[in-house]
Amino acid sequence: MKMNETVAVALNRQINSELNASYTYLSMAAYFDSIELPGFAAWFRGHSKEEIEHGMRIYDFIVKRDSRVELEGIDKPQLNFDSPTAALETALAKEKEVTAQINALFELAHEEKEYSTQNMLHWFLEEQIEEEDLFRSILEKVKAAEGNRWHMLVLDGELGKGIAN
Ligand code: FEO
Fold this sequence. Notes:
By secondary structure, the chain is mainly α. It is 78% helix and 0% strand. Helix 2 (38-64) runs parallel beside helix 5 (149-161).
């Protein structure tokens, strides 16, 4: 059955939001490269790819439901941050924003009786719990290391090896 049009528009908007998140995290990777923390940069680069995968999940769903994918422009991301802590705080705020968007999408799918969309969104509801938890835990570690270059380098090494996440 072809997808409800209001829901299709909202899902297209969510593709855009996931790709904006991808670009934001890529910009954070570039920031961490610029302050010689390559482990953080690699971590954010990996997370940038994950956001594209999130967008593609929705893309594929729209196509399978015989609806139209319509891409929008990507906003210019923030380039600089006051500190690693500030960057992680911005990233966590981004994840909270995405969680609110997924919740609103779920609500809309419910109102429009789009049951298969609700089913598809269950994956995202679970994923957002994991994402917020992950970003929060890295933020706590960064806060603890802030101001001490040696501790920051140890954390950087762990993030680069996938130990700290
Ligand atoms: Fe696709 Fe990190 O939320």
